[in-house]
Amino acid sequence: xxxxxxxxxxxxxxxxxxxxxxxxxxxxxxxxxxxxxxxxxxxxxxxxxxxxxxxxxxxxxxxxxxxxxxxxxxxxxxxxxxxxxxxxxxxxxxxxxxxxxxxxxxxxxxxxxxxxxxxxxxxxxxxxxxxxxxxxxxxxxxxxxxxxxxxxxxxxxxxxxxxxxxxxxxxxxxxxxxxxxxxxxxxxxxxxxxxxxxxxxxxxxxxxxxxxxxxxxxxxxxxxxxxxxxxxxxxxxxxxxxxxxxxxxxxxxxxxxxxxxxxxxxxxxxxxxxxxxxxxxxxxxxxxxxxxxxxxxxxxxxxxxxxxxxxxxxxxxxxxxxxxxxxxxxxxxxxxxxxxxxxxxxxxxxxxxxxxxxxxxxxxxxxxxxxxxxxxxxxxxxxxxxxxxxxxxxxxxxxxxxxxxxxxxxxxxxxxxxxxxxxxxxxxxx
Length: 430
Known about the structure:
The protein is an alpha/beta fold.
C-alpha cells in the first residue's frame, strides 16, 4: 500500500459481484461492505443472502469473528467509509430504454466517494464500462467532490468483474483476474492486492483502458457467437431441421465452437456490447457486426412466441383466450436474477396474440419481478390449472424432471427453448 498503509477495503455495492469479493477480501483484510439499500445491509448483517451467491458459512464466520486486520462488517452510512483507504466499486452499469449506457449508479457512487476521499486513497472500479469511462467520466467526479488531484492525491484502478451467477464451480478465486492502475506503481499495488485472494492468478494490463476494453470484448464476443447460431436456428427452422442436431454434427470437428441458440439476457452479454458500440459511435465509427448480433439476439423472444402459436394452430387450437405457461423468468438457470431477462419478450408477444399467460419460477422473487416488469408470477403451480401451451424458457434443475403431462390440456404444445428435455416430450425446440 501507499505510505505503508495496511489495506482497509470498502466494497461499494453488495450484489452478485460485490458480496463474494467482500467475503474473500475479509479473510485477509478489514473490509466494509457498503450498500445504499438498507434492507440489503440488514439482511447481510444477519448472515443471509437473497442472491444465493455467498458462502454463508464464511459470511457468518467473518461477521462474528472480527479481528484487528481482518473481518467483515456492513453499512449503509457513508460516513463509515472515511475509515477506509481502498474503495472497490461494484455497482450495476445497465442500459436505458434507448439501449444507451446508463452511468447513473456509477457516477453517484463516484460522487459519494469523492465526498469522503483522502490523500493516498485508491478507488478501483469493477463495474463493466466502455474503454475510457474510468478516467474520462468517473475521475472528474471524484476530483470535483473531493477537491483532490488525480494521480497526485488519489489514484484509480480497474479490474473487471468475472462473476458467473449461479456457477458454484468457477467461483471468484478460481477465475484469473485482469488488473490495472492509473500509474505503474498503483497498477502493481492493485495487482498484488487481487493476487492475494485470487488463486488462479492475475493479469496486469498495461493501462486502465486496456482492462476496460478486455471486459467489453469478452461478452461482445460471446454475444456475436450466440447471434450466429441464433441466426442459424432461424434458417434451419425454415429448412425443417433441428439446430442442435446440426451443432452436434459440426462439433465433431476439433476446432468447431459448440455455441447453443437461445435467449441472451442478463446484465452482461445482453448489455456490454451496447457499451462498446456507444464508445465506437462517439469516436465516429458505427459498428456493424456487434450491433447486427444484438439485433438477432433481441428478436429471439418474439420468434419463440411466433413458433409456439404456429404449433398450436397446427394442432387445431384456438389461439385467442388459450392458456400458456412460461416455465422460468430468470435470465439463466438455477439463479434468482431477473435483470434484463429476455423471457419477458416471449410473454409480451404471446399476450399480443391474445393468449392468457402465466409465468412460473420458484427461483425468482415475485416482488422484484413486479417492480421490474409490472407483472405477477407464480411461485407454485396449481394442480387444478392446465395449459394449452407450455414454454420451458429456463433450464432450472426443477424443470428437467418435471411431469408436464399433469398440467397439459389435450393437444398441448410443449416448446423447449433450452433443448434440455427429452425430444420425445416436446413439440419443438430452439
